[in-house]
Design goal:
By secondary structure, this protein is an all-alpha fold. It has a domain of 98 residues. Helix content is 44%, strand content 2%. The chain contains 7 helices and 2 strands. It has a two-stranded antiparallel sheet with strand order 1-2. The longest helix is centred in the last third of the chain and has 16 residues. The termini are far apart.
Length: 161
């Protein structure tokens, strides 16, 4: 960026912002989030920092908790196989939904970290996990249960499944 295009802050503009913040009250709470690149990933009052089972409430924790459940239920799969497929299917977004493929055209879009359709999720749901297809642990565990039945393991899945 050229020097002429760079924004320079003056003492008077800082003073104006401070006065504006004091005068608006509610704005003060939002100011720290402006420009924060990871604000949505930070734990909040509604997003606990750990799952109910005590794992970190992030992709690593969701995979590890799913693997623990899978071990109890004798569902094969590895961290690397699950992670690789999640990155391909949803880039790690538990709220991902595919509204353009053949499943979506039939009215049953793929949802969640591993892009599972509702009938598959319902059929391969694993007892003890949430019935919410967007719940990361339920989505991973059901998808791995399906992949185990169809391909032997999520580790054997290398494309859309």
């Amino acid at each position: 960026m050229s020097a002429a295009a760079q924004h320079t802050s003056t003492r008077s503009s800082r003073l104006i912002r401070k006065v504006a913040l004091v005068g608006t009250g509610v704005t003060v709470l939002a100011v720290p989030l402006v420009g924060a690149t990871a604000a949505s990933a930070a734990p909040t009052a509604t997003t606990p920092s750990t799952t109910l089972a005590g794992y970190p409430n992030n992709l690593d924790g969701w995979i590890r908790e799913s693997l623990a459940i899978m071990a109890e239920k004798h569902i094969p799969g590895s961290y690397n196989g699950i992670y690789r497929n999640i990155m391909r299917e949803s880039s790690g977004n538990p709220r991902a939904i595919n509204l353009w493929d053949s499943n979506a055209a039939k009215g049953i879009p793929s949802k969640g970290l591993l892009q599972v359709i509702d009938p598959t999720f319902n059929t391969y749901h694993v007892a003890g996990t949430s019935f919410d297809i967007y719940d990361p642990i339920a989505n991973i565990t059901a998808a791995c249960n399906y992949a185990a039945a169809r391909y032997g393991s999520m580790d054997n899945v290398n494309s859309a499944y």
